[in-house]
Design brief:
single chain, 258 residues, alpha/beta, 6-stranded parallel sheet, disordered N terminus, binds 3-methylbut-3-enyl trihydrogen diphosphate, binds magnesium ion
Length: 258
């Protein structure tokens, strides 16, 4: 395999993305449990195998200048799962962040974690803090992991913060703009995703980036996350490249502005 640290670095500014390549890909990594059951293994074996898929996808994005990759790893609704699965998942997250930190550092990838981390064990919070700090100045790619994240939680927090500003007399309600709301979401420093992928066969958003996906191209596949390899990802990228993003315009306008 080509060592990704030997790939040419593209500076964060002065990027000239081909329209056909997504700048930001967001993924619901689903189907780990069913993959494992299919193999006659405990569900958690699917989560473990899913980490390998994450690693390959990160390397691919880094190599191909997909600058933002956002992965949904644990939703605010996943707390209702069996305690034992949650414990194994959090241990796995902790171990993976620690072991993969080197890959991120060597390849100039910044780790950012979004979501309410306070209910997680201190060991996981510490791993996240350590790796986030070690990679905070990296500029070749931004990897965002959503943990105990929910789109409704994100919008709710933004509403509360803005309401406080109004209550304190620092803001008039007429000053609540689209941009102001966006700036209070925990993805405020990311562009909206261009391409959304959900593996595992379900055709739903499951409370992921509700605001941010407003104009994202959606791609659903039956493939379980542990089986989602680079061929599958390239299939999604090719599908994306065929789409015409109109953002409310008509086809002729898009062609004229191209
Ligand atoms: C996604 O796989 C991983 C998490 C939600 C943590 P699942 O665990 O949901 O796997 P399925 O959907 O039950 O197969
Ligand atoms: C969505 O998967 C959340 C993550 C992948 C982290 P779920 O498996 O929890 O989604 P539902 O419950 O089937 O909608
Ligand atoms: Mg699932």
């Amino acid at each position: 395999m080509k060592k990704i640290s030997s790939m040419p670095r593209v500076p964060i500014t002065n990027r000239n993305y081909p329209v056909s390549l997504p700048h930001h890909v967001a993924v619901i990594m689903d189907g780990n449990g069913r993959w494992a059951i299919q193999q006659g293994l405990p569900r958690t074996a699917g989560h473990k195998k899913g980490v390998d898929t994450v690693r390959e996808l990160v390397k691919y994005c880094r190599n191909h200048d997909i600058f933002y990759l956002t992965l949904f790893a644990f939703s605010s609704e996943n707390w209702s799962r069996p305690q034992e699965e949650i414990r194994i998942l959090t241990d796995l997250l902790c171990a993976s962040i620690d072991t993969e930190a080197r890959l991120l550092i060597e390849n100039d990838i910044k780790l950012s974690v979004i979501g309410d981390l306070s209910p997680f064990p201190e060991s996981l919070q510490q791993s996240i803090r350590r790796t986030s700090e070690q990679t905070q100045n990296n500029r070749s790619m931004i990897l965002t992991i959503a943990l105990n994240y929910g789109g409704q939680w994100d919008i709710h927090n933004a509403c509360q913060a803005i309401a406080r500003m109004v209550e304190n007399g620092d803001l008039a309600s007429t000053e609540i703009t689209h941009q102001l709301i966006q700036s209070h979401l925990c993805t405020h420093d990311l562009p909206d995703p261009d391409l959304f992928i959900r593996t595992g066969g379900e055709i739903r958003i499951s409370n992921f980036l509700l605001w941010q996906l407003a104009y994202t191209e959606l791609f659903f596949t039956d493939t379980y996350w542990p089986d989602f390899d680079i061929d599958c990802f390239e299939n999604a990228l090719n599908d994306y490249a065929e789409r015409q993003r109109r953002f409310g315009n008509i086809e002729r306008q898009i062609k004229e502005s191209a």
